[in-house]
Write a structure and sequence with these properties.
17 helices; mainly alpha; 375 residues
Length: 375
Amino acid sequence: MDLLNLLSNLLSDSVRNTPISMSRNTDIDDVLDGLKQRARQGTSNHVPYDLQVEAVKKFWDTGEFKTFREARLVSFSLAVRPWNDRRCLIEEPARFSSVLTELGHWETSPRQFRKCYQGLMHSYFHYYGAYKLDLDGNAVSMTGQKNWGALRTYLNEKANHVQDATINPDWVGCLLENKGIFSATPCDAYADDVLNGRNGKVLQIREHLGITNASWFTRSLVLTQIEKVCKQRDMLFLSKVDQLMTLLGDNKVLRDLGLQLILNRYAQTQVRLPHPKLKEACITAWDIPWSAKDDPWLLSVDTRWAGVSHDAREMIGDWLKEECIELFFTKLVKDAQDSSQGGEHEKFASTCLLEELDTTDQKSPICARFTCTRS
């Protein structure tokens, strides 16, 4: 027996006689699976506000990144306003351009560049560059809107730079499958699904890309749904009005634009029957569409109704007149039942009302209805 065989036999005898179990241990497999899962999740898209402020102030003065950490922090902070005068990087053309230029140093390194890209997405989704007012009602500057559009283009063009040949975070795959979010119509692809109760894809996108309720994306998704319904034929649109009103809810940020779209479309239908929810929502938001100073039947030019068409304001006015007349006669009947002079009261009140209707627009549906009643 040679030495190699002798050694093999000795080892075999040792294994058979050892009191320690030599069963296969899978702990290392669990560790490896955990590491892969963390790699797929990627780094956190949360950056403490104080670190963002510090990074913006430093870049504001130097115009360059000394470290990769600074580059990542500033990427998250384009819309951060460290000073009371509301200055921010995305509204400063030269400094904003410098940010994108400086980030070019890491474009060839996907693992590093995607961490900055993730920050740029955060800035993109939380700066209201597509609107005139931000979430707090502050005006969005023209420069900010222009630079936000440039950021959108940059994100679209550089999306492929975040993917490498090894393991990629889940958000990278989500991003590459949904590059339409960097288009002029970022919510079009998802509005129909959400309208029909299929929210899974949007929820996944929001989770992976770090889109919060404060983002313009949430606002735009609601308005896109309303716009899509408003483009439908009358019967389908009318069947969805209640759903649209529920969609708006008590959201004051969405209220004005959403109501304007719904109300203007409703006035274009052939039906134009009173819609209690729509009427109450408009009055709550903008008060009555009449001028209180002069003739109470006269349409108001209040700026709160500025986005509403003339036909839509007339329609709301007619609904309110009809409601007032209905309440008037309801009370009249009640009073008549309690008074022996009820008949004379009703005759006198009807005469006064019809004289008032003679002075209003006879083309109004409500006026025409009561004029026909006279004859």
